[in-house]
Amino acid sequence: MQIWRGAIIVHKKIKLAIISIVVIAIIATLATAYVLEIYAQTQHSRIKLPWYEIEDWEVDTCSKWGGRTEAEKITTEQQPESYGDMSITIQARKTKSRNETLYRVSYYLESFSATTDYTIRLINKQTGQQKEITHGTLEPGIGTTDYWVQNLKESYTTAEIKYYKGTVIAPIVEMS
Question: Buried-most residue among 25, 63, 107, 119 (CB within 10 A)?
Fold first, then answer.
């Protein structure tokens, strides 16, 4: 009988010790989460977006990899339209050699709601000279993308995508 009483007392002490350990672990987890949240708030980057916080290392990496120290000024010549009708992007750069300039243009277009005719071209804003890269028609839900490279003797300053709602214009970035 004495043995059973001793076993019951030991069992109750072990049960109390386990409950104490679980409570301490929960408190430690909550305290750690609180400290990490405060740390994260003090370490946030200089740029905040509603869906994603851009860290300093991301800005530095993209600036170094892209070879730019400041953002390019890209313009759109169109009236404000509803969001989500099209997805469009264009990037262009050039590298000068002795007699020619190597142009590199990458672009992506996708229409979400309408049949869309488009034209992609290079333009010299000073002379008005133009060089068409491609043109075509997109059906809703269809996209196109390409990377165009060519040596040209002519000089161009901007690349553009012209479509039924307007024109997206990007400067041609000169690379060394």
Answer: 107
Give the start-to-end residue ranges of the domains of the chain: 2-43, 74-175
Confidence of residue 68 (pLDDT cuts 50, 70, 90): low
pLDDT given for residue 30 in this prediction: 74
d(CA 150, CA 167): 23
pLDDT at residue 120, rounded to an integer: 96
CA distances from 128 to 74, 119, 121 (A): 19, 16, 12
- pTM across the whole model: 0.54
Q: Are 91 and 130 in contact (CB under 8 A)?
A: no
In DSSP terms, which residues pair with 131 in a beta bridge?
Answer: 122
> 92, 104, 108: which is closest to 145 by C-alpha?
108
